[in-house]
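pasting for the record
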Amino acid sequence: MAKHYVPNDVLQYVGKTGFITFELWQKYFLKAKCRRSKFHNWKELIRRKYLVAHNNDKIKDTLVLNRSDRNVLQLFETRPAYMPNPNQLKHDEILLNGIMYLDRALHICQWQTEAELKMLRLNDYKVETQGQLIKYPDAIIHLKNANRFDVIAVEYERTQKSRKRYGQILNAYAGMKRIDAVIWIVKTPAIKNIIIEQVKQVYYPQRERPIAFLMEETWKLNPKKLVELSNEILTNSG
């Protein structure tokens, strides 16, 4: 009988993100080559009760952590993240696809999602925007450059927020000393222009904590551009 190995890499990923889609799984975690083995291995994650299908029938090919199994929860050193709002699923999948590419290519040395930051309650990265509503960056990535580590906050905007909301977020980042730079991935030039307008409006400290923008299509085609852009603005600001 073949020995069973706990899929720790998949579980630790789900512990950081709250979910995994079939597409992300087969792209970054699948080791089997043949079609039959591929679907068998995906179903094994459910059969062995590590993961379960999302309880929303409209969400297909997406698994979340089996929180009803104490043995699964004991595999984590800290509380694993919950799946984000289903409306955010496509947003997070696109963001995570690029982050996983950077991680596998060793362009980044560490990363955290908003869902993970919420569970860890890291005050250093907290963005307070509206009353009791607490937001964290969509992602935090850590870059190793020579003898230093740079911490980059990543925001991904697929839909436009209000000018007031962007102003609040920018004010939060202005005082966030653990962040070295902010990269905004934006779906449209209009979103970029509104954020730039608010950068000027709130007198955001670009020299201390630079901001730059990356178009969504560029992120999808070449995630490494985010690392190159981060290094460029940090070099210029220094």
